[in-house]
Amino acid sequence: MNNPASHWHHLSAAPHRGMFLAGTLQGVLTLLWWVVELAGRYGVAGTASAWSIAPTWAHAFLMIYGFFSFFILGFLFTTFPNWMNGEKIQPRHFSASSLLMAGGIVLFYLGLEAGELIAAAGVATLLTGFSIAIYALLRVLFGVKNQDRRHSIAASLALIGGWLGIAACLLWLLTENRALLDFSRSAGIWFFLLPIVMTVSHRMIPFFSSRVLEDYVLIRPYWILWLMLACSAGHGILQLWEAAFSYLWLFDLPLAASALYLSFTWGLLRSFRVHLLAVLHIAFAWLGLSMLLYGMQSLVFLASDGTLLIFGLAPLHALAIGYFASMVLGMASRVTLGHSGRPLVLDKLGWLLFLGFQAAVLFRILPDILPAASGMAPGLYMLAGLTWLICFTLWAVRYAPLYWRPRVDGKPG
């Protein structure tokens, strides 16, 4: 049955398939677009292009809301009901959500060339699909009783933060109010991505570890999750107030300490025995390191009376590529393998691609951390983008076909 109808049947057979496929295609597109943009900007190939939206702002939107969102929602569509023994997400909801969000991204790309109004139409379409996803997940949340809903509530609040960020971007495109753009970018990181990825990490990493590591003691204190979520929100709020940059360390360092403690407690070193588990632990270790960089950056800024800013955008990229992207790819690989009926084993190629992602993080942050490497910054930025693009494209070639093919074990879904 190698025909479009058959492919659509399989794509709509499980809630993660459509979202993961759209996220995979968007990941390749946005990385390719960004590498081309960098090549023109630094005079490597071609010339800098004129877009209707500043490339840095478009890059942030395409990554935060147009790449990570697909994988996060696809993952939650699958696991959210399982967390609470709730009702499964309805096909009409996950199909409509993924199609609208994918269509919104296409319009946004067109708008980069055709004008801000087309881009705004794309953001509005994406927001509509995102709204359907939140509605579907909240129906599950409010439909269960006598179940532990703590992780689900935290994830739902983070999704609402993401919704507000997309809405703010839409209003910015319509009004050109810079405060709305600043809120959209800050909300995307600190009210949406970081809270939801931390919540998933807290729920799943100890659980997966306990399934494959011998004599593993599952430690998952909720107080530390609430502390980390509060620190994320605190950082996001202070970041909206430029004068408060000197005090970000008040939230960043406790968050760094909490994450590093959990990395040690959850068994980072032991996880290397199982590569599919190790990728999650390595990704989580980037959280502690990135927040440590953020905290040190803020402290130095405070000590120098606002005259010295170290590390540049290194903390952001350590967080976004090191933690978010690595965690998303680790979780997506696990879900894709498991829900296609394949063994939960990360093969040699998958492990090498993940290590390539880690190299991309280092290429991106080293020029901002080491003064000796600052002169090579354009080249290293290009190398980081190319490394990520190549590794992710190879990952996409490997995994994307599984979304429109039936399970190998013959089971439904």
From TrEMBL:
<feature type="transmembrane region" description="Helical">
    <location>
        <begin position="379"/>
        <end position="397"/>
    </location>
</feature>
<feature type="transmembrane region" description="Helical">
    <location>
        <begin position="118"/>
        <end position="142"/>
    </location>
</feature>
<feature type="transmembrane region" description="Helical">
    <location>
        <begin position="187"/>
        <end position="205"/>
    </location>
</feature>
<keyword id="KW-1133">Transmembrane helix</keyword>
<protein>
    <submittedName>
        <fullName>NnrS family protein</fullName>
    </submittedName>
</protein>
<keyword id="KW-0472">Membrane</keyword>
<feature type="transmembrane region" description="Helical">
    <location>
        <begin position="349"/>
        <end position="367"/>
    </location>
</feature>
<feature type="transmembrane region" description="Helical">
    <location>
        <begin position="276"/>
        <end position="296"/>
    </location>
</feature>
<feature type="transmembrane region" description="Helical">
    <location>
        <begin position="247"/>
        <end position="269"/>
    </location>
</feature>
<feature type="transmembrane region" description="Helical">
    <location>
        <begin position="56"/>
        <end position="81"/>
    </location>
</feature>
<keyword id="KW-0812">Transmembrane</keyword>
<feature type="transmembrane region" description="Helical">
    <location>
        <begin position="18"/>
        <end position="36"/>
    </location>
</feature>
<feature type="transmembrane region" description="Helical">
    <location>
        <begin position="217"/>
        <end position="241"/>
    </location>
</feature>
<feature type="transmembrane region" description="Helical">
    <location>
        <begin position="93"/>
        <end position="112"/>
    </location>
</feature>
<feature type="transmembrane region" description="Helical">
    <location>
        <begin position="308"/>
        <end position="329"/>
    </location>
</feature>
<dbReference type="Pfam" id="PF05940">
    <property type="entry name" value="NnrS"/>
</dbReference>
<dbReference type="InterPro" id="IPR010266">
    <property type="entry name" value="NnrS"/>
</dbReference>
<feature type="transmembrane region" description="Helical">
    <location>
        <begin position="154"/>
        <end position="175"/>
    </location>
</feature>
